[in-house]
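Exercise 7b. Backbone tokens:
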């Protein structure tokens, strides 16, 4: 798990554009917003949060985590104001009850892919059979099983009929960022996860999952039912749907909306 307090960092967009977008938000009284977010949103939110802070005067304290831990955190009574999390969180009745009844807002989506260490031969993953062979041939495969994305990868293993065969070669990682690090260090031959978190130094993207196995994980935002900062929370969610935010999300390897 990871927690960050984001304050004055450089803007990645022009101040004029942000002022035009954020002028209604700037009129709100400054608040500290506690945000819970999926780990795979780290890159996007770490860039967008300081822009929002500078334009709005609000402060964001963001806790990044995996889906199972997010559900536990949300349902345990931990105070928070809003979430930007995998849609799977909303499938848990206890977690869903902690949000306002308003429909959640889709912020970003991303599919799955495979990486190897920089300079290593790129195996064939163009078809289901090719991906199956590549996974079985690899002595080690890194991903995060205890996550929404990891749960889908396990389903893919099952669909390919290799669920049991993959158990000895699976190298579980604590978080998304550790997948590429493990591959870059040679601790795992392959990394398998959401494409945006696989874009890192020391590794190369082999490619996306074949079409018949591909699926996008959607990250959606919602306001906590008991927050005292509902307007500020809604303002941040609104900001995440602006063209300026969409440009950052796209640059981080995700599809906005």
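Sequence design result:
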């Amino acid at each position: 798990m990871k927690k960050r307090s984001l304050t004055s960092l450089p803007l990645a967009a022009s101040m004029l554009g942000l002022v035009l977008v954020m002028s209604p938000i700037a009129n709100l009284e400054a608040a500290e917003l506690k945000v819970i977010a999926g780990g795979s949103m780290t890159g996007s939110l770490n860039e967008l949060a300081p822009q929002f802070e500078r334009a709005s005067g609000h402060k964001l304290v963001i806790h990044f985590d995996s889906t199972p831990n997010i559900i536990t955190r949300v349902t345990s009574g931990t105070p928070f104001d809003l979430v930007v999390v995998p849609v799977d969180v909303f499938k848990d009745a206890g977690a869903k009850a902690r949000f306002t009844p308003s429909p959640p807002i889709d912020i970003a989506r991303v599919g799955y892919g495979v990486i190897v260490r920089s300079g290593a031969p790129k195996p064939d993953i163009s078809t289901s059979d090719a991906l199956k062979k590549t996974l079985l041939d690899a002595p080690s495969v890194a991903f995060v099983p205890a996550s929404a994305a990891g749960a889908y990868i396990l389903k893919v293993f099952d669909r390919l009929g290799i669920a049991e065969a993959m158990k000895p070669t699976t190298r579980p990682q604590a978080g998304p960022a550790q997948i590429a690090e493990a591959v870059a260090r040679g601790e795992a031959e392959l990394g398998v996860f959401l494409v945006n978190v696989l874009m890192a130094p020391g590794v190369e993207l082999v490619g996306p999952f074949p079409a018949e196995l591909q699926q996008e994980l959607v990250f959606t935002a919602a306001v906590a039912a008991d927050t005292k900062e509902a307007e500020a929370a809604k303002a941040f969610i609104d900001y995440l749907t602006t063209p300026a935010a969409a440009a950052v999300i796209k640059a981080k390897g995700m599809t906005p909306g």
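Instructor comment: Confidence is low (pLDDT under 50) at residues 1-21. The first strand starts at residue 2 and ends at 6.
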